[in-house]
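quick one, 270 residues, struct below
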Amino acid sequence: MNNIGKNSFDIGYMDTLALGDSSLHRLDPRAKLITTLVFIVTVLSFGKHTVSAMLPFFIYPIVLISLSGLPSRYLMKKLLIVSPFAVLVGIFNPFIDREIIYYIGSIGISGGWVSFLSILLRFVLTVTAALILLSLTGFNAVCASLMKLGLPRPFVVQLLFFYRYIFVLTDEAERMERARSLRAFNSEAMNIKIFVSLIGHLLLRTIDRAERIYLAMCCRGFDGRIRMIRKMKRSYKELFFVIGWSLLFIFLRNYNITLKLGQAFTGVIK
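---
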C-alpha cells in the first residue's frame, strides 16, 4: 500500500476508535457535540493577547483522552499534520505588531509574539477537541446529531457525502499512482504534463465511481436519513456532562486560574 492508501486508512481509523465501549463512547452524541461546541466557542472568545488564561482548558482533552482510552500519539500525529496552517496564519504577527507588552526580566516580549502563541494555543485546543469528538463519536453520529439539533437535512447529507467521498478519491488516486509506478518501473519522477493529466483523469474517475456508489445506495433503500447502530438516548448522565463541563468552561473563561496560582505562588516565595 502506498502513502496515499496509508493516509486514507489512517483517517478512517477514527471511525474504528468510535466503536469503543467506554462510558464516554456510550454517551449520547448530541451531548458530546454540544459540549465540544461550547468548548470551542469559549476558547475562541479570548482576546488576541491572552495566553495564560487558556492553559487550564487543557483539562478537557486530557480528561477525555484518559477516561476513553484514546491513543494520544495518534491524535498528536493528526494535530501535527494540520499544524502548518496555524503557523502560516500567525507567523507574520511578530513582524506587524512590535509593541512591547510584557517583560521577562530585561527581555521585552512584543504583542506579535504573544498573539502568535495565542493563535497556536487556540489551534491546539480546538482541533484536539474536534479530533476527540470524532474519535469518540464517529462522523456518522456527528452528522446524525446535527440533524437532530435542527440543521437542514440536505446540508448534513452533503457533509456526510463529502467525508465519505474522500475515501473514494484517495482510493482512485492510489490505483492511478500504482498503475503509473508499474508502467514507469517504480520511477518517482513525474513531469508537469503527466501530473496534470493524472489530476484530470482522477476527477473524472472519482465522479463516475461516486455516481455508481450513489445508485447502489438508492437500490439498497437510501432515503437521505442517517441510521445509527447505537440509538440516541437522553438521560441524566448526558445532562450532567453538558452542564458540568459548560459551567467549568464559563468559570475558566471569567477567572484566570493560572494568574491567580502564579500570584499565590510568588507571594508564598516572598
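The first helix runs from residue 3 to 17.
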